[in-house]
């Protein structure tokens, strides 16, 4: 082993090499695998056809999230309420059958622990610092907030992990992102990551693993770090991570699947070695001025189309790049926006608070703080809160947050992915706008023709109160 | 996965360029829970035409598909390869492919043969005449019963996978001992990681 200073990414990589190959690829051991109902059925089917078992069932955790309705799942007698869409029902039934058949721990649709895989993993202590974590879902990057190397994979790779507990990988380049200076009022982790994506672009992190470094990220809670790492993929990076520290250790201690007793002490000693060494070199370094970050909102159909809420809708010709000009013109047409319009003049008919980006307890607290004693505007037709897990929901109810949301005119729903991608019945109608705490503002993402404006939970709450995109600092 | 050393038989003279994965398998088929049965959805929009090339009696069950440049462009859906396989296709012959599609094809035991447009044109004529085409993967040749003989290039790793009937899973399982010893070291030094949901 060379004594050359190593990045955190390099350390995790080195600790997971099973076998290096001449062509630069390596067999990398996978410590944690999360499975949901959409990208797993064919992987299980392939194992069945080949007569292969799951190599290490205890390293995989299965939980349904994408297709589940966020309305009640059990009737008054505890009976299962049938799911209307037969294909959704079929995918859910497949996971419910596959997981136990292959010896995998399954969290059921109505269990208290059920939720979005990326909320459940950290919450259960299944996701741990220094581990490799994969899931057939691009937002697996979230778990990097615990100092893990976490990334999304395709269905064949899901099968590969189930069968071998490894992946054949080529090492990525490394990128460090630092935010220097003091964060201003009203600026949240969501605003910071959206701003970063605006700076580096939606393909800026392609081929890289990002490490977010420096005091701004060190001062964040684990929930905030999960939000930052979650959207690494919107910046093109398959993974993003933040070194584990005392904040991480405090968060994990006592969680159901976190190590205990002597094992905890051993784990802690190991985790404390997992930072980038002084002098470690990154292939790319980005420094961002904290003073340039304000509460933010997207105006277009790419996550890089982000502006401070005090801005105006940009004109396509304001972009230097010709391709971007064309893309911006298309985006504005889809979004029904006119250049020069102040962003705070854009009305919204829908507000969605949820998704693997912003559905944890701190997100709900931030939104509730804005909504306390207020009500949604009359032009806001549909406002829903979808907690990230049953445990988040219960905690919020203990704190009385559900009552604040309900009194403000929001619907208080069951956990799941919901209107982030509308695979379940929660969709934004064509032509309508949604202030959304999710991660993608793609064409048709929240439903055919839906117009998405990505914002933080506090900004979503502010938009609900005013019935238009709003600078939360004014409330 | 079945071993693929030779593909012999009828070829469908399709020939179209820029065939995207939406054409190969439309989005509505993606909510399925198995890889099988997607042949029904393969080229669905084209097959609405009763005289389409895929459903004529002479082309039913043909193992080879002839196509134009940039075959399989568009989305990454592995369903495209699954659909072709279910239709009975074991090899495609075209001047070029999207990277993602050709990777998915090999992972699913389908050989993507790259030949220049002139060669594809000649094979189209042979196929239209109802005569068979022979592909020999080991020799890397495509031949006909009319003395045609074309050679093609293929990545040695892909060739190895196809000829051995090896999917990536099988290949990695060749390193089972290395995985075993990694796991033993891990269990001894960091049992808390190995415990997983069994903690």
Could you characterize the architecture of this molecule?
The complex is a heterodimer of chains A (475) and B (199). Chain A is an alpha/beta fold and 475 residues long. Chain A has 15 helices and 19 strands. Chain A has helices at 8-14, 41-50, 86-101, 117-124, 155-164, 189-200, 215-218, 222-230, 246-252, 262-271, 322-335, 361-371, 390-398, 401-407, 457-466; strands at 17-20, 25-29, 32-35, 60-62, 105-106, 132-135, 149-152, 166-170, 173-180, 208-213, 239-241, 284-289, 296-298, 306-308, 350-353, 382-385, 411-412, 433-436, 451-454. In chain A, the strands form five sheets. A five-stranded parallel sheet of chain A has the order 5-4-3-6-7, sandwiched between helices. In chain A, strand 1 (17-20) and strand 2 form a beta hairpin. Chain B has one domain: Aconitase, domain 4 (Alpha-Beta Barrel), CATH 3.20.19.10. The radius of gyration of chain B is 20 Å and the shape is globular.
Distance from N terminus to C terminus of chain A (CA atoms, Å) equals 56 Å
By DSSP, the count of extended strands of chain B is 8
**Proportion of residues in extended strands of chain B:** 5-15%
**Which series of helices and strands of chain B comes N to C?**
EEHEHEHEHEEEHHHH
Helix-strand layout with pairing:
The complex is a heterodimer of chains A (475) and B (199).
Chain A: H1 8-14, E1 17-20, E2 25-29, E3 32-35, H2 41-50, E4 60-62, H3 86-101, E5 105-106, H4 117-124, E6 132-135, E7 149-152, H5 155-164, E8 166-170, E9 173-180, H6 189-200, E10 208-213, H7 215-218, H8 222-230, E11 239-241, H9 246-252, H10 262-271, E12 284-289, E13 296-298, E14 306-308, H11 322-335, E15 350-353, H12 361-371, E16 382-385, H13 390-398, H14 401-407, E17 411-412, E18 433-436, E19 451-454, H15 457-466
Parallel strand pairs in A: 3-4, 3-6, 4-5, 6-7, 9-10, 9-12, 10-11, 15-16, 15-18, 16-17, 18-19
Antiparallel strand pairs in A: 1-2, 2-8, 13-14
Chain B: E1 6-9, E2 11-13, H1 21-24, E3 64-66, H2 79-87, E4 91-94, H3 99-107, E5 111-114, H4 117-128, E6 133-136, E7 141-144, E8 149-151, H5 156-164, H6 168-173, H7 176-189, H8 191-194
């Amino acid at each position: 082993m060379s004594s050359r200073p190593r990045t955190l990414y390099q350390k995790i990589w080195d600790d997971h090499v099973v076998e290096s190959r001449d062509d630069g690829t390596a067999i990398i051991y996978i410590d944690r695998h999360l499975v949901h109902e959409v990208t797993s059925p064919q992987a299980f089917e392939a194992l069945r056809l080949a007569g292969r078992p799951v190599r290490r069932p205890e390293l995989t955790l299965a939980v349904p999230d994408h297709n589940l309705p966020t309305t009640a799942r059990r009737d008054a007698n505890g009976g299962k309420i049938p799911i209307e869409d037969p294909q959704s029902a079929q995918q859910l039934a497949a996971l419910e059958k596959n997981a136990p058949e292959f010896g995998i721990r399954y969290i059921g649709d109505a269990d208290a622990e059920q939720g979005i895989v990326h909320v459940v993993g950290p919450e259960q202590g299944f996701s741990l610092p220094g581990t490799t974590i994969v899931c057939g879902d691009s937002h697996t990057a979230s778990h990097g907030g615990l100092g893990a190397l976490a990334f999304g994979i395709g269905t064949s790779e899901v099968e590969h992990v189930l069968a071998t507990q490894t992946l054949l990988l080529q090492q990525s380049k490394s990128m460090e992102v630092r935010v220097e200076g003091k964060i201003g009022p009203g600026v949240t982790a969501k605003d910071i990551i959206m701003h970063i994506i605006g700076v580096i672009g939606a393909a800026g992190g392609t081929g890289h693993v990002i490490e977010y470094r420096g005091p701004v990220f060190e001062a964040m809670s684990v929930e905030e770090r999960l939000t930052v790492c979650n959207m690494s993929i919107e910046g093109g990076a398959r993974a993003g991570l933040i070194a584990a520290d005392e904040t991480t250790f405090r968060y994990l201690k006592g969680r159901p699947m976190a190590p205990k007793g002597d094992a905890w002490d051993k784990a802690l000693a190991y985790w404390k070695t997992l930072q980038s060494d002084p002098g470690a070199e990154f292939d790319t370094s980005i420094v961002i001025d904290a003073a340039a970050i304000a509460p933010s909102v997207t105006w277009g159909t790419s996550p890089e189309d982000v502006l401070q809420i005090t801005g105006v809708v940009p004109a396509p010709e304001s972009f230097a790049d010709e391709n971007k000009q064309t893309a911006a013109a298309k985006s504005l047409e889809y979004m029904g926006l006119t250049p020069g319009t102040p962003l705070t003049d854009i009305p919204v008919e829908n507000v969605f608070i949820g998704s693997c980006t912003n559905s944890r307890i701190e997100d709900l607290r931030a939104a509730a703080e804005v909504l306390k004693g207020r009500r949604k505007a009359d032009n806001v037709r549909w406002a829903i809160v979808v907690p990230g897990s049953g445990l988040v929901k219960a905690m919020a109810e203990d704190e009385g947050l559900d009552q604040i949301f309900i009194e403000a005119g929001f619907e208080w729903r069951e956990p799941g992915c919901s209107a982030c991608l509308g695979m379940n019945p929660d969709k934004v109608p064509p032509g309508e706008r949604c202030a959304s705490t999710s991660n993608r503002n793609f064409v048709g993402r929240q439903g055919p023709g839906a117009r998405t404006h990505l914002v933080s939970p506090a900004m979503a709450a502010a938009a609900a109160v005013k019935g238009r995109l709003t600078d939360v600092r004014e409330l | 996965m079945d071993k693929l050393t030779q593909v012999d038989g009828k070829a469908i003279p399709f020939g179209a360029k820029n065939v995207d994965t939406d054409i190969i398998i439309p989005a509505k088929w993606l909510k399925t829970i198995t890889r099988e049965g997607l042949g029904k959805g393969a080229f669905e929009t084209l097959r609405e035409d009763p005289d389409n090339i895929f459903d004529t009696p002479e082309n039913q069950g043909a193992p080879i598909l002839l196509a134009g440049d940039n075959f399989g462009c568009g989305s990454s859906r592995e369903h495209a390869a699954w659909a072709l396989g279910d239709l009975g296709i074991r090899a495609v012959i075209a001047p070029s492919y999207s990277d993602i599609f050709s990777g998915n094809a090999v992972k699913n035991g389908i050989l993507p043969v790259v030949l220049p447009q002139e060669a594809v044109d000649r094979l189209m004529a042979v196929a239209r005449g109802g005569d068979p085409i022979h592909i020999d993967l080991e020799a890397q040749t495509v031949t006909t019963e009319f003395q045609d003989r074309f050679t093609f290039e293929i990545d040695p790793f892909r060739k190895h996978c196809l000829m051995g009937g090896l999917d990536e899973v099988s290949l990695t399982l060749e390193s089972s001992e290395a995985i075993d010893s990694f796991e033993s070291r891990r269990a001894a030094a960091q049992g808390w990681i190995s415990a997983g949901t069994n903690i």
